[in-house]
């Protein structure tokens, strides 16, 4: 196994602290200079590895996409790439954003960043091809990519709770129904899936996601985490 070099170790040190900081105080309140100071390095050294704060966020989003999806698959208990897991993921994120201002800031910052949004769409498009292939047998890659542009907009609107008075369950159900309709999922399956999601404790699941992700980044050994960062 190849050893992790000094430069890679520095990146890991930065990303571990950035994860902790962004998930405890929010992306907006996290400052590059503060991260550099905490890690006893110059701002120039930090920006050599991550040119901007957005670059750090993009790294976290890439890691979180895989981690979060694995959690949802395990919770859905339906095997690889299930519709249930897709809907649980949205419900968990929406509940986090309603309950926790820091989580809302983190997710909305990710969806508002062109670089991070491209990562989200890339991951979601690859997943959608597996999840919905039964319902979209003649779709091209472009069809899925266009669909995910619409899906990302629905997700952002669902996560953005500012000034919203509609009950969380109602917003989640409406968003899930719209997303599944985009991919031609039959009404009976849509209704059954939505009812099952709303019957679960998705709020508890939401609380677990970022806490367990933060611990995961902290505990994963250097080589394994470096492999993940390299994709």
From TrEMBL:
Keywords: DNA-binding. It comes from the Bacteria. Gene3D superfamilies: Tetracycline Repressor, domain 2. SUPFAM superfamilies: Homeodomain-like. This is Bacterial regulatory proteins tetR family. Residues 8-68 form the HTH tetR-type domain. InterPro entries: Homeodomain-like_sf, HTH_TetR. One of its GO terms (molecular function) is DNA binding. Residues 31-50 bind DNA.
């Amino acid at each position: 196994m190849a050893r992790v070099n000094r430069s890679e170790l520095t990146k890991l040190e930065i990303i571990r602290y950035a994860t902790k900081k962004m998930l405890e105080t929010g992306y907006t309140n996290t400052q590059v200079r503060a991260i550099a100071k905490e890690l006893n390095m110059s701002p120039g050294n930090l920006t050599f590895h991550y040119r901007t704060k957005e670059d750090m966020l993009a790294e976290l989003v890439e890691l979180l996409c895989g981690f979060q999806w694995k959690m949802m698959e395990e919770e859905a208990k339906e095997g690889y790439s299930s519709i249930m897991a897709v809907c649980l993921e949205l419900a968990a994120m929406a509940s986090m954003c309603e309950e926790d201002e820091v989580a809302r800031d983190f997710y909305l910052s990710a969806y508002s960043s062109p670089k991070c949004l491209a990562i989200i769409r890339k991951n979601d498009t690859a997943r959608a091809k597996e999840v919905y292939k039964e319902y979209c047998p003649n779709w091209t890659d472009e069809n899925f990519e266009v669909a995910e542009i619409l899906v990302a907009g629905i997700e952002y609107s669902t996560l953005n709770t500012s000034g919203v008075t509609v009950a969380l369950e109602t917003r989640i159900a409406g968003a899930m129904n719209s997303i599944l309709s985009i991919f031609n999922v039959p009404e009976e399956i849509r209704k059954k899936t939505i009812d099952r999601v709303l019957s679960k404790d998705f709020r508890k699941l939401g609380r677990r996601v970022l806490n367990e992700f933060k611990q995961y980044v902290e505990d994963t050994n250097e080589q394994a985490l470096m492999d993940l960062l390299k994709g």
